[in-house]
Amino acid sequence: MKMESNTTTSEAEQRVVYLMGDVIDREWTDDQRAAWSGFLELSACLKLDHNHELEAHHGLSISMAGLLGRLAAAENHVQRLTDLAAAMGLSLSRVSRIIDILERRRLVERVRCPNDRRAVNAQLTNLGLTAARQAQTTLRAAVQRDFLDALHDADAAVLAASFQRLLTAMDSRRDRTHVLSRQMESVE
Questions:
Q1: Phi/psi of residue 74, nearest 5 degrees
Q2: DSSP string of 76-134?
Q3: Who's near 40: CB < 8 A, 6+ residues apart?
């Protein structure tokens, strides 16, 4: 079976074996291997292709567009850098480097947090708001074209339910891990 990226399923599955070890050939079913390798391969291809598209049309990466989009949605278009980092799943240093680039392009400004003199906020400029909206339009069209249009409604419903179940399980595990780490801290 060929994937959109001209990568055969067996090549994608082989990359998963490199990542996970060949024990998955014995421990996972064919469907489990195909599901995991397909998820990884599709995620990587979509992110890479959409990153290139945003870069070509707007000079923005997906991370840049994500930060601009979060600022566009924030009250007064302002948010702490630490909050942006946590929301995006990026390190504070990575967010700071991205903000440096966006600031040089006059899409954002760094401003002191009025409630905490140690904290720094990013504020979206009018130019940044325009850039965010344009990037969102481009990305929305790309996702529609490359992902949603390829799915039947029933497929989308199965994926939505599956992802929700996986995210709920992951959130539960994270909550348990967080509680356990706090308990360990209190013992020490």
A1: -75, 155
A2: GGEEEHHHHHHHHT--HHHHHHHHHHHHHTTSEEEEE-SS-TT-EEEEE-HHHHHHHHH
A3: 12, 15, 16, 19
CB under 8 Å to 41, separation ≥6 — which residues?
Answer: 3, 5, 7, 12, 15
**Could you give the angle at the alpha carbon of 49 between the alpha carbons of 44 and 53, nearest 5°?**
145
Q: Encoding tokens for residue 117?
A: 């003199």
- What is the rounded distance in angstroms from the CA atom of residue 24 to the CA atom of residue 17? 7
DSSP state of 149: G
Reduced to 3 states (helix: H, G, I; strand: E, B; else coil), residue 8 is: strand
The radius of gyration of the chain from alpha carbons, rounded to an integer in Å, stands at 20
3-class secondary-structure state, position 1: coil
Q: Is the pTM higher than 0.90?
A: no
Encode pLDDT of 6-16 as tens digits.
Answer: 455 577 777 77
Nearest residue to 101 (alpha-carbon basis) of 131, 133, 60, 62: 60
Contact present, 65 and 58 (Cβ < 8 Å): yes
Residue type, 74: A
pLDDT tens track for 103-157: 999 999 999 988 888 889 999 999 999 999 999 999 999 999 999 999 999 999 9
